[in-house]
Amino acid sequence: MSGGNVTTVSSNGTYSFTKPNREGITLLAGLGVEGDVHAGVTVKHRSRVAQDPTQPNLRQVHLIHAELFEDVAAAGFEVAPGDLGENITTRGIDLLGLPTGTLLRIGAEAVVEVTGLRNPCAQIDNFRHGLLKQVLGRDENGEVFRKAGVMGVVLTGGEVRPGDPITAELPAEPHRPLERV
């Protein structure tokens, strides 16, 4: 197991690119963040709803590593927790290096299963022009890489607050690398 901590939590009951920071959020099993626009059994992301509104919601919770904000700041972009629409900002845990199916134990009770990578979209450039290139690109082999965090589903609900520990429990091998969801 590897771990870190929660630095910030955010939610929004209406569609907006950014999410305001909160003192705490409540994760609800099978649904997501209580009161958040993306909570639900079926997909809530607008582009996914347009494709098929009955598909399961594999994007109930969005987590981003705070280290990303430092990386993009070095490239001249000011981004704060909640600005990219994430629910939980972490520090000290390699979210992007986790395999699919990793269990994230957050705080005293909550458990989130990692389902995949957030696929950053053009809205990021509307927020900060040129930022999309910082969180989406190609490696030396031409493979697309995504750095805008991971998505997950809530297996066990609970309260999550800044300062809470977060630990990763890897699934049984063979590990499946994260793909976009």
What are the SSEs and their pairings?
Layout: E1 2-10, E2 21-22, E3 25-28, E4 32-33, H1 46-51, E5 61-65, H2 67-74, E6 88-91, E7 103-106, E8 110-117, H3 123-127, H4 132-135, E9 136-138, E10 144-146, E11 150-156, E12 158-160, E13 165-169
Parallel strand pairs: 5-6
Antiparallel strand pairs: 1-2, 1-6, 1-13, 3-4, 3-12, 5-11, 7-8, 7-13, 8-11, 9-10
Overview of this structure, please?
The protein starts with a strand and ends in a 12-residue tail after the last strand. The chain contains four helices and 13 strands. The chain has helices spanning about 45-50, 65-75, 125, 130-135; strands spanning about 1-10, 20, 25-30, 30-35, 60-65, 90, 105, 110-115, 135-140, 145, 150-155, 160, 165-170. The longest helix is centred in the middle third of the chain and has 8 residues, at about 65-75. It has about 180 residues and is mainly beta. Helices cover about 15% and strands about 35% of the residues. Strands 1-6-5-11-8-7-13 form a seven-stranded mixed β-barrel. A three-stranded antiparallel sheet has the order 4-3-12, with no helix packed on it.
A few lines on this structure:
With 181 residues, this protein is mainly beta. The protein has 4 helices and 13 strands. It has helices at residues 46-51, 67-74, 123-127, 132-135, and strands spanning 2-10, 21-22, 25-28, 32-33, 61-65, 88-91, 103-106, 110-117, 136-138, 144-146, 150-156, 158-160, 165-169.
